[in-house]
User: What shape does this take?
Amino acid sequence: MRLIILAACLIAPATWAQNGSSAPGMTADNLHYVAGRGITLYRDAERTEPYIRLKFREPVVVMNTYPDRYRVYTQDGARGYVRTEDISNLWILVSKRKKQLYLYRGQQLVLQFNADFGYNVYSDKVRRGSEADRDHWRTPEGVFYVVHKNPRSQYYRAFLLNYPNAEDATRGLRTGLISEQEFEAIMDAERQNRTPPMGTRLGGMIEIHGDGTGLSTNWTQGCVAVRNEDMDRLWGIVREGTPVVIQK
Assistant: This one.
């Protein structure tokens, strides 16, 4: 069975500015590759001696690169070899202030597009919005990942993000927006890398999707929208598990 390449990386606090072709502030100490689902770490370069199974989105550090494999080590010190297609360091950075979406591979900028955002682009998302309360149609800020790819979205194609995540759930419980039961459901989804509940007062269904104007306007209900032709370029690269940092 073909393994799906699922990308992620450890993300430092989202305070990076954008200039040039690399991600400022990122070094070998805070950039990592991450494993996909069902990935085996092998003891030998020929990959004949299975060692351990890596967890989905588990960070690994690449020590040596070869045409068809990497030599890596994990956070708990396990060392071995994986196939090159089993790990990735692809990630997305979204700047609400600059109204841009950046696709990085490690420190290297790969693609950059104009993006549209929620009606209130200046504030972080804290609760569900509505036609009667468009102020809360906000694009959330924080560290997320692509939890699902939808090829038949209402807005052409879409990457569904794992909003609300654990941080959002903690805030929601503290402020009384969600119940203990809802909090536990979101936390359980986070631990199991599943789509979180979308029906709480925190809101949900935050996506990066198509049908954008390309003019950096504010019209979505909290999503990030790019032009369809830009979405096509992202579609073949971005995988479930690709991390997404959204900053003010």
